[in-house]
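Progress note, project year one: complex with manganese (II) ion.
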Amino acid sequence: MDFEPLAIDGLQLDRPLVIAGPCSAETEQQVLETARGLARAGIKIFRAGIWKPRTKPGGFEGVGVPGLAWLNKVREQTGMKVATEVANRGHVEAALEYGIDLIWIGARTTANPFAMQEIADVLRESGKDISVLVKNPVNPDLELWVGALERLYNAGIRRLGVIHRGFSSYGPSAYRNHPHWRIPLELRIRYPKLPIICDPSHIGGKRELIASLSQQALDMGFDGLIVESHCDPDCAWSDRSQQVTPEVLSLILDNLVYRDAPVPADSLVTLRRKIDQLDNDLLEILAKRMNVSREIGRYKMRHNMPVVQAGRYGDIMTSRILAARAQGMSEDFMRAVLSAIHEESVRIQVELSRESVENEEGEEK
Ligand code: PEP
Ligand code: MN
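Model obtained:
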């Protein structure tokens, strides 16, 4: 896919691209008050959800079409461009009719190929050259994300970008949606021209995490941010714990470090060499560890012990996580590394015991 730059009215969008606004348009007054604050903070693109996909029925499902007229007022009164989420043919038709400048596809819609095809078809029929941002699907599936982009691309939409909003997971987590940074970075490697925008609000689920997640995204070379902002966050009708006032957003944005300066090529080469060397060391250590696991596996077999001993695994996790934290590494990271190593050790040991059963059966015959 050969993408073209995101643009509104033919004008290319600046980098870093910052989009901000409430999770949901609630009332005309809330939309306009938030928009005025954001315009004062220098934001150029206003977001608001008009149709809200809710996990369960009974929640606030958005104000629908009347909200589009409020977005037009935002444009008239502040000069900001306006963006909203679309999830089906009717939404796209209404958004185009009201001249919405930019549309995005929500995470639940990206995960649904039928809905994506419907949206691609209606965009093709409209013949409009609108920029479209595609949020990652709720599940950590890069191919599903790429598939959604391909459907739009095949319908002639070239001005495409993506929004990284994190991925659902089960069980306790520091995030509302786990970032799995590897996935957007893989997308960057595959499609270097595709703009990637980070949504720290939906990743963190908490306003305290917006600044650090935004900085992480910028450090990784993301092209922009989409942040939820509300004139009175604690009274928001949806996602209240992750929204900030326009004033707080302005402070957050002022404190971010935008790393646009080109990195001197020679120092980058040196640093990359160091990384290559360290990766080699890591591989050797891992191979040694797996050999010890194999020996332990043989011991367990001789003594008729089960492969997995939950107590031992728990002790390893606890002590290594403590040690990792002391060295400035996150608990989530260490947990992921240890569980991958443990899984491989178990696989090796199970394979050993299967081989030994097969040998014994052979001897008996
Ligand atoms: C949103 O941006 O308000 C939204 C519904 O996001 P997501 O699709 O990422 O859950
Ligand atoms: Mn939201």
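The chain has a mean pLDDT of 93.
The two ends are 59 Å apart (CA to CA).
No further modelling is planned for this target in the current period.
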